Amino acid sequence: MPRGAELLDAKARALLAEIGFSEADFFAFIDDYTGMTGDAITWWRKAAEQGSVRAQARLGYFYANGIGVAPDEAEAARWYEMAAQAGVASAQSGLGYLYTSGRGVAQDYAKSAHWYHLAAAQGDRSAQSGLGYLYGAGLGVMRDEAESARWHKLAGEQGSDYSQLQYGLLCLRGAGVVRSQAAAIVWLRMAAEQGNEPAREELRKLGVK
Fold first, then answer.
1. How far apart are CA 151 and CA 117, in angstroms?
2. pTM, 2 dp
3. Residues 6+ apart with CB under 8 A from 17
4. Where are the domains of the chain?
5. Does residue 54 or residue 6 have the better pLDDT?
6. What are 88-113's pLDDT values in tens digits?
7. Which residue of 66, 90, 91, 206 is 20 to 30 Å from 115, comparing CA positions?
C-alpha cells in the first residue's frame, strides 16, 4: 500500500478511536481510502457492535453480497434486522428482500411486505419495486393491480428498469391503470434504454424501434 494511503488509514483509525466507533460519517473516509478490505470490515463491525445503525445496515449489505466477507445471508439478516428496527430504509428494504426470497430467513411474504412498506414510505426505490411485485402477485398482501401499478410507477420514476418494465406492461394491459399503448411505450423505452432486454423485446413486438 502506498505510504499516503497508510497515513490516511492511520488517521481514519485515530478518528474512529477518538469517537468510540459511533459516528457513522467517518466510515465514508474508510471506504474512500481502504476499500472493502478485511481491515475496513473490522472497523465497520466495531461501529456496528457499538450501536451505529448505519454500520449495521452496511454489514448486512456486505454479508448479503459477499463484499469483503464470505456471503452469509443469515448474518446479513441479523445485521439488517438491527438497523431495520431503528428505521434505516436500506436495511428494511434488504430485510424485505430476504423474506421474499427465503434467503437467510424462512420465507415470509407478510414480513416482506411489512418491511417493504416501511422502507417504501421513506422513498426506497427497491422497496417500492418489491411492493409492486407483491401486490401484483398477491403475496403477503391482497392482490391489487392498482397498488402494484402505483408502487411500480414510483420506483420507475426513480429509475428502476424492472419497475419501468412492469408499469409499461400494466399500461399495455390496462391492469390497475388506464390502458394506453402510448404510455406503455414511454415506460418500456425508459427500461430499454437502461439495457432491460425484456423491455426491448416488448417494444419489438409492438413494432417500435
1. 10
2. 0.83
3. none
4. 144-209
5. 54
6. 999 999 999 999 999 999 999 999 99
7. 66
**What is the Cβ-side half-sphere exposure of residue 151, based on CA atoms within 13 angstroms?**
24
CA pseudo-torsion sign 157, 163, 168, 172: negative
The set of cell numbers assigned to 55 is: 454500520
Reading the block at residue 77, the C-alpha cell is 439478516
What pLDDT was estimated at residue 4? 30
Please state, in angstroms and rounded to a whole number, the distance separating the CA atoms of residues 102 and 81.
15
Phi-psi bin for 129: left (phi > 0), alpha (psi -120 to 50), beta?
A: alpha
The Cα angle at residue 133 between residues 146 and 125, in degrees rounded to 5:
95
Number of Cβ atoms within 10 Å of the Cβ of 44: 25
Torsion sign over Cα 128, 131, 136, 142: negative
Under DSSP, the state recorded for 66 is: T
12, 26 contact by CB (below 8 A): yes
| pLDDT > 60? residue 120 | yes
Give the pLDDT mean for 58-82. Answer: 93
Residue 24's Cβ-count burial label (10 Å; 0-12, 13-18, 19+) is: middle
pLDDT of residue 48: 86
> CA 209 to CA 203: how far, in whole Å?
7
Residue 74 identity (one-letter amino acid): A
For residue range 124-146, what is the model confidence (pLDDT) as tens digits? 999 999 999 999 999 999 999 99
